[in-house]
Write a structure and sequence with these properties.
With 240 residues, this protein is mainly alpha-helical. The protein has helices spanning 37-43, 45-48, 53-64, 77-82, 85-99, 102-109, 114-129, 161-168, 175-182, 197-219, 223-226, and strands at 7-8, 20-26, 31-36, 131-133, 139-141. The strands form two sheets. Strands 1-2-3 form a three-stranded mixed sheet. Strands 4-5 form a two-stranded antiparallel ribbon. 14% of the residues are buried.
């Protein structure tokens, strides 16, 4: 049973399979602004009037830039600087009409930018396969079609359903899991650059606490984390 009629959010939520959203509510005037996704499909029928409308729309938004820090397609960067984001989105839709798929667009129009292709693919993978909590408390990927074998390298290795629940309720932070997955810790130095002896002592004093936290987390997670080997670098090597 569908018990959600509409969602109040910004336009980025349209990247997911959402049919309609409310963009803003004016309580004094007693009205609100909204978007129906079908209107976007009708606006560019030649490109979007296909069975893969959602994926094509996502590709257009990613190529136009600004989604999860994914930059604009290098071939469209001039349009963004000179005319603005609306025209850039229009151009992204036009090139998709010609080439059909976002990856094909990048390979044809920006073959000398492999770093952009990697960023595009990673961002699209996150949007497509991010973990979601179902009504019964289980966790699965947003899409179950053609899930890559190495999706754990992009999102995270599979955690227990209880861990996802605790994270969603902010009972468990994600910083320690980020450390377990990435094998390194980023500590932002204070304004003085982290040269004071007090700050050096603080970093040293935090090592046992972080080690204890990592041990507790890994012991209650899957075997991927059990086998992790972490090396704490010298104190100043953490500073960025």
């Amino acid at each position: 049973m569908n018990f959600i009629d509409c969602i109040y959010s910004d336009a980025d939520i349209l990247l997911y399979e959402i049919d309609r959203i409310i963009l803003g509510i004016d309580f004094e005037a007693g009205n609100f602004k909204w978007i129906f996704k079908e209107d976007i499909r009708d606006y560019k029928q030649a490109t979007f009037n296909t069975a893969s409308f959602h994926e094509t729309f996502m590709d257009a938004c990613l190529l136009a830039g600004g989604i999860y820090d994914c930059p604009v397609l290098p071939g469209l960067a001039v349009s963004l600087a000179s005319i603005g984001p609306i025209f850039t989105f229009e151009r992204a839709v036009d090139v998709l009409r010609t080439y059909g798929h976002g990856i094909t667009v990048i390979r044809e129009l920006s073959p000398d930018h492999p770093e952009y292709l990697d960023r595009f693919a990673r961002t699209k993978g996150i949007l497509t396969y991010m973990p979601i909590i179902k009504d019964n408390g289980t966790v699965e990927t947003l899409s179950k079609k053609n899930i890559p074998n190495n999706i754990a390298m992009l999102i995270t290795p599979r955690l227990a359903n209880e861990i996802y629940f605790y994270i969603s309720r902010h009972l468990v932070g994600t910083n320690m899991y980020d450390l377990l997955i990435s094998d390194h810790l980023k500590v932002h130095a204070p304004l003085d650059g982290g040269e004071s002896q007090e700050y050096r002592n603080l970093l040293n004093d935090m090592i046992p606490l972080r080690t204890t936290c990592l041990g507790l987390l890994s012991s209650h997670s899957n075997r991927f984390f059990h086998r992790k080997r972490l090396v704490f670098l010298p104190m100043m090597a953490w500073l960025i």
